[in-house]
Design brief:
Elements (H helix, E strand, L loop, with lengths): L5 E2 L11 E2 L7 H37 L16 H6 L2 H33 L4 H14 L5 H11 L4 H6 L11 H25 L3 H9 L4 H30 L2 H6 L7 H9 L10 H32 L1
Length: 314
């Protein structure tokens, strides 16, 4: 049935009592065409993702389950040896070492980044907030050989800070597991600040005021109100930091080489030909192990982000 006409009762403009036709709703077909055009905007990104990530992932998966060209029986044959070898001996030790390093640095980065982000979010000075966030954006993407050189020059065995404070007398060495963890925190803490600051800004002032009006202390407010709301964001930030540390390669390669067992170092050695005859595709199997861990990380991170957004937008 046609939409009833609206009657002009304002007494101005048109003739009193005359009906003004209502604006018809947009047809469903038009809305569908607009939705189809909206997908065209994302098409370049989807193509880039398919070429830059999809094709390499498929190639890695195929190579991980096939023999290499230098194998005794020839290349291209299906095998599980690559995958089984990647989960044994030194390769398993490297995988566990990467998981241990990533878990530890992500935990420390989360614990330090949360109070720093809270100070930024509650700062009354806009300049301080913008400066810290801009600096965090730069430092979160600062890594590789420049980062390794900076720490070697400052905290290395002959570094300025090491010699000035006599850190070697206390057993300090940058080229150890703990030293590498300190270097990773240089870019993980700023990354945590960028990740958790929007969630902290989403905390309602009314929640804090209501808690204080009911006699709650600052600790009780954080224990019973703020932290439960921020928990999905904190866990999501931890998982994101874990993934960033797990995938780091250039910094560790330039600073410690293969002295610390990491799966990224093992992949680099395998790609450079430092493997036994017939195990040329072992690097692809190690890469597949990393892809599986990264997929598990994203599978945890995305639901947590959606849950956090739901809480903070309500």
């Amino acid at each position: 049935m046609p939409t009833p006409a609206a009657v002009d009762t304002n007494g101005g403009g048109g003739t009193p009592g005359t009906a003004t036709p209502a604006t018809p709703a947009a047809p469903t077909a038009t809305r569908r065409r607009r939705g189809g055009r909206a997908w065209l905007g994302a098409l370049p990104l989807l193509v880039f993702f398919a070429i830059g990530f999809g094709l390499p992932a498929v190639a890695i998966a195929i190579g991980a389950f096939t023999t290499s060209s230098d194998a005794p029986g020839g290349g291209g044959h299906f095998t599980m040896a690559n995958l089984s070898d990647s989960l044994q001996g030194a390769y398993l030790t490297a995988l566990l070492g990467s998981v241990k390093l990533s878990a530890l640095t992500a935990l420390i980065g989360t614990a330090i980044g949360l109070p720093l982000a809270q100070a930024v979010a509650t700062s009354r000075f806009k300049f301080v907030r913008e400066t810290v966030l801009a600096g965090s954006g730069v430092l979160a993407n600062f890594g590789g050989v420049p980062l390794a050189f900076m720490f070697v020059a400052t905290l290395g065995n002959a570094g300025e800070v090491t010699t000035s404070l006599g850190l070697k007398d206390y057993g300090w060495s940058l080229y150890t597991f703990n030293g590498l963890a300190v270097v990773y925190l240089y870019f993980l803490i700023p990354l945590m600040i960028l990740t958790i600051t929007p969630a902290l800004e989403g905390l309602r002032v009314q929640w804090r005021e209501a808690a204080y009006n009911n006699g709650a202390t600052v600790f009780q407010y954080w224990r019973h109100v703020a932290l439960p709301v921020l928990l999905p964001s904190l866990l999501g930030g931890y998982v994101l930091l874990f993934g960033a540390s797990f995938a780091a390669y250039a910094t560790a390669e330039a600073m410690v080489g293969s002295s610390i067992p990491l799966i990224s170092m093992q992949i680099g050695d395998a790609l450079s030909g430092n493997v036994l005859v017939g195990q040329g595709n072992l690097a692809l199997a190690l890469g597949l192990d990393m892809i599986v861990v990264a997929c598990l990380v994203m599978a945890i991170y995305l639901p947590l982000q959606r849950r956090s957004a739901k809480w903070l937008s309500s």
